[in-house]
Amino acid sequence: MAEETTETVAGEGVKKSGKLKLILIIVAGVILAAIIGGGVAMFLMSGSDSDAEPTVEDAKPAKPARAIYTKIRTLEGNPYFTVVVSSADDRTHYMQLYVEAKSRDNEVDVALTKHMPKIVSVLNQLFSRQSFDVLRTPEGKVMLQQAALTGIQGVMQDKIGKPGVEKILFTGFIMQ
């Protein structure tokens, strides 16, 4: 009976030792899988910026420069233009415009201020040639805005070698 007890105790020792080894192997496998998974995730997320050349798809579009708005002032310093416009029925009408030029370059802003007399002259001639009947429509106002832009860009092209002005804005437009 003493021999049976020894064998049973020895058998239980082998069973406990086997379960412990199995648990250690499973834990080691889980830890190894976590380490490998973490390494793969870091590799995929970090990318290799030093080896790869930037492509067009990777490049972010350049943020446009900040807009600069320049008030176009008459020679007297008024912030508006007042001109007489005619209509089809030969009646006299008045138009008052507040005009601003939008650019994105300080050089253009300085040139607009420096050459303001020439710009005012071009705009006065343009505004005086307009018809009241055409300007009553939204399309007429847009056409006048485009013509003013073309005129100012022409002056800028002559003076600084580039159009410079991106847009002309009518910040006030009164007709009567």
Describe the structure.
Strands 1, 2, 3 and 4 form a four-stranded antiparallel beta sheet that branches. Strand 2 (81-86) and strand 3 form a beta hairpin. The protein is an alpha+beta fold. Helix 3 packs antiparallel against helix 5 (138-160). It has two domains: 1-61; 68-175, Tetrahydropterin Synthase, Chain A (2-Layer Sandwich). The mean pLDDT is 84. The protein has five helices and four strands. The radius of gyration is 40 Å and the shape is rod-shaped.
Which key features would you list for this structure?
176 residues, Tetrahydropterin Synthase, Chain A, rod-shaped, four-stranded antiparallel beta sheet, alpha+beta
Radius of gyration: 40 Å
- Please identify the top-level CATH class of the largest domain: Alpha Beta
Low-pLDDT segments, ≥5 res: none
Distance between the first and last residues' Cα: 126 Å
| Mean pLDDT over the residues | 84
- Taken in chain order, the helices and strands follow as HEEEHHHHE
Give a short synopsis of this structure.
The chain has 176 residues and is α+β, with helices and mostly antiparallel strands. It is built from 5 helices and 4 strands.
Question: How does the SSE layout of this entry go?
Answer:
Blueprint: H1 2-46, E1 68-72, E2 81-86, E3 92-103, H2 106-114, H3 116-128, H4 132-135, H5 138-160, E4 165-175
Antiparallel strand pairs: 1-3, 2-3, 3-4
